[in-house]
UniProtKB/TrEMBL annotation:
Name this protein carries in UniProt: EF-hand domain-containing protein
Residues covered by region (Disordered): 49-68
Taxonomy, superkingdom: Bacteria
Annotated EF-hand domain residues: 5-40
UniProt cross-references to SUPFAM superfamilies, sorted A to Z: EF-hand
Length: 68
C-alpha cells in the first residue's frame, strides 16, 4: 500500500465519521462507532458489559464485522 492509498483510506474514514460534514469530528461523531459496538455487545441491554459479552466482541473484530 502506498502512502497516498493509505491517506485516501483515512480521508474516507474521516468523511464517514463526519456526519454533519463540517470538516471536524465532534466527540459524539468520533465515539458513535464505539457506542454502537458497545450497544451491540450488550446482549442483556443493561448498559454494562459482562466478561462474556466483552469476549464476544473479539470474535466480531477478528471476523471483520466491526467495519471501518
Amino acid at each position: 500500500m502506498t502512502q497516498a492509498e493509505f491517506l485516501a483510506l483515512r480521508r474516507k474514514a474521516f468523511a464517514k465519521l463526519d456526519t454533519d460534514k463540517d470538516g471536524v469530528l465532534s466527540f459524539e461523531e468520533a465515539a458513535a462507532k464505539t457506542i454502537a459496538n458497545f450497544t451491540g455487545a450488550d446482549a442483556d441491554h443493561d448498559g454494562k458489559l459482562t466478561a462474556g459479552e466483552f469476549q464476544a466482541t473479539s470474535s466480531m473484530r477478528r471476523s471483520g464485522d466491526e467495519g471501518a
